[in-house]
Design a protein that fits this description.
Number of strands: 14
Helix content: 25-40%
Shape: globular
CATH superfamily of the largest domain: Rhodanese-like domain
CATH architecture of the largest domain: 3-Layer(aba) Sandwich
CATH topology of the largest domain: Oxidized Rhodanese, domain 1
Distance between the termini: 107 Å
Length: about 325
C-alpha cells in the first residue's frame, strides 16, 4: 500500500510541477505580448533622445532658423511671453502656448511681486503648460525683453537646464517672414513637472546685506539710471543698494526694431570695466527680479560667469525694510 501511495504521490507532484511550469510560461508569454503592444501602440512620451537640438544641456540663445523646423516637435514646448495677450491672439509662433510673466509674481507676507513656491511652480509648468522634465523649453518675448529670461531663471531655480531663449524674439521671427498663426496649440493633459530648488541661483535679503562690503562680491542693479539714482521710483524709498553698480538691462542688446544680444567680446568689455570678473560672486537685482533675470542669463549662460545669483525680492522688498541701507545718486 505504501509503495502505491508513494507512486501516486510522485505522479501528483510531477503533475503539479508541470502545471506551475506551464503557468509560468503562459505568464512570460503574456508579458511579452503586453510589452510589444505597449511599444507599438501606446503614444510615446517625449524625451531627451527625441530632440534634434544640440548643445542645450544648459540655457542658451537659440536662433530663428534653428527653431523653424522644430515648432511641431513633441519634445519641445514653445512659450510666448510677450507682454500683451492681444499680440498673442493676433498671431504667434506655431504651437506656442501663452504665459504672462505676472504668473511668476505673487505677494509674500504683504510684499508684492515675490516668487511662488516650488509646488505652485510645478503645477503651473506641468498642469498649465504641459511641460515635463525631459522636455526642452523655448521662450520668446518682444524686443528680447526680460519676460522670457524671467521664466528662464525660474526654470534654472528648479534645476531645469533644457532652456532656449529666442535671440531677437518675436520681431526677428516675423521680420524673416517665418510662419505665424492664430490657432492655439493642442497640449497633452496630465503632464508632470518635478522641480528641485537650487539655492545657488538665489540671493536673499540678509545674504545680500552681509556681503555689501565684500571685495569678492559685485552687486549689479538692472534698473534704468533714474530709478538707480533715486530720481524716479514708486517704491517706499528711492535709490539703490549701497555699493551696487548700475547696468541697465537694455545695454546688453543692440538694434532698433529687432533687438538681439551684443557680441560676446563687447559684453565682456562692458562688464570688465565695472570690475565684474569670473572669480567674483555676482548679485543682480532690479525692481522685482524680472529685469535682473536678463543680466543673470547674459552673465551666467551667454558669457559663462560661474557665480551669479538673482536677488529675487529686489528693490520692492529692500526699500520696504527701513533697516536696510539705501544710497541715492549715480555713485555706487
Amino acid at each position: 500500500m505504501k509503495k502505491h501511495w508513494r507512486k501516486r504521490e510522485g505522479r501528483s507532484q510531477a503533475k503539479g510541477f508541470g502545471e506551475v511550469s506551464m503557468r509560468k510560461r503562459r505568464l512570460h508569454t503574456l508579458k511579452g505580448v503586453i510589452l510589444i503592444w505597449t511599444v507599438l501602440f501606446l503614444p510615446r512620451v517625449p524625451g531627451a533622445k527625441d530632440t534634434p537640438l544640440k548643445n542645450l544641456d544648459h540655457p542658451r540663445l537659440i536662433e530663428t532658423r534653428e527653431l523653424l523646423n522644430l515648432t511641431s516637435h513633441p519634445s519641445i514646448r514653445i512659450i510666448d511671453m510677450r507682454t500683451s495677450l492681444q499680440d498673442y491672439l493676433k498671431d504667434h509662433i506655431p504651437n506656442a502656448v501663452y504665459l504672462h510673466f505676472e504668473n511668476l509674481q505673487i505677494p509674500d507676507k504683504g510684499i508684492p511681486d515675490q516668487a511662488p513656491d516650488r509646488i505652485c511652480l510645478e503645477r503651473l509648468l506641468g498642469d498649465n503648460l504641459s511641460l515635463s522634465n525631459p522636455m526642452w523649453v523655448i521662450l520668446y518675448s518682444e524686443k528680447s525683453n526680460p519676460n522670457a529670461t524671467f521664466l528662464a531663471w525660474t526654470l534654472d531655480y528648479l534645476v531645469h537646464k533644457k532652456v532656449g531663449i529666442l535671440n531677437g524674439g518675436w520681431e526677428k521671427w516675423i521680420s524673416e517672414k517665418l510662419p505665424a498663426l492664430q490657432e492655439y496649440p493642442s497640449l497633452p493633459p496630465n503632464m508632470k513637472f518635478l522641480g528641485k530648488v537650487n539655492r545657488e541661483t538665489l540671493a536673499e535679503k540678509k545674504w545680500v546685506l552681509d556681503r555689501i562690503t565684500s571685495k569678492n562680491v559685485v552687486i549689479l542693479d538692472a534698473r534704468p539710471p533714474k530709478q538707480y539714482s533715486g530720481e524716479e521710483g514708486e517704491e517706499i524709498r528711492r535709490g539703490h543698494i549701497p555699493g551696487a553698480r548700475n547696468v541697465y538691462w537694455e545695454t546688453t542688446l543692440e538694434g532698433e526694431e529687432v533687438r538681439v544680444w551684443k557680441k560676446k567680446e563687447d559684453l565682456e568689455k562692458l562688464f570688465a570695466e565695472l570690475g565684474v570678473t569670473k572669480g567674483k560672486e555676482i548679485i543682480v537685482y532690479c525692481r522685482t527680479g524680472k529685469e535682473a533675470s536678463h543680466l543673470y542669463f547674459t552673465l551666467k549662460y551667454f558669457l559663462g560667469f560661474p557665480h551669479v545669483r538673482l536677488y529675487r525680492g529686489s528693490w520692492v522688498e529692500w526699500s520696504a525694510d527701513k533697516n536696510m541701507p539705501v544710497k541715492v545718486g549715480m555713485d555706487p
